[in-house]
Write a structure and sequence with these properties.
Helices cover 0% and strands 45% of the residues. The protein is mainly beta. Strands 1, 2, 3, 4, 5, 6, 7 and 8 form an 8-stranded antiparallel β-sheet that branches.
Amino acid sequence: GKSESAPASAPAIIDGDLNSSASATTGATAREQWFAVGFARPLEIRRVAFVHGYNLTQRGWFDTSAGKPVVQVQRQAGGPWEKIGELADYPATTATDGTAFKRAEKGQLDVTTGDIERVTQAQTFTLALSRPETAVGVRVVGMPSSGAKPDAHALSCAELQVFVR
């Protein structure tokens, strides 16, 4: 199973297609957003990868000014979410500035505006665990960005991958 703060496009984060993505939006109020995947049975997780999705009119990245995106697990269905780490390799960004991302290579990203090109579709950020964590769910949580639109905060995710080996 899968979920996100705005679940309508959630299947995109587990379809294996890096060209599709899900978005979570909050409007004018910036509040925590997440993308999550759930499992039919507990898994011993060793690594989590967040694959960045398309951005929406110069927004869609995590705002890391107050901290990197957090990786949480749910150990049993309906249980609390617990932090197991963060995406330390995620670049330093703010709600309005995502220029810390590497630029897209020609043909790598289908963009129509210059600034959106600063964030590359399919950049991957990983949490490798020093010991396995048993869970029935994993999510990546953080603050959304607004870019040039302070009344429209958003996040984007192409894939949320969980590895057991």
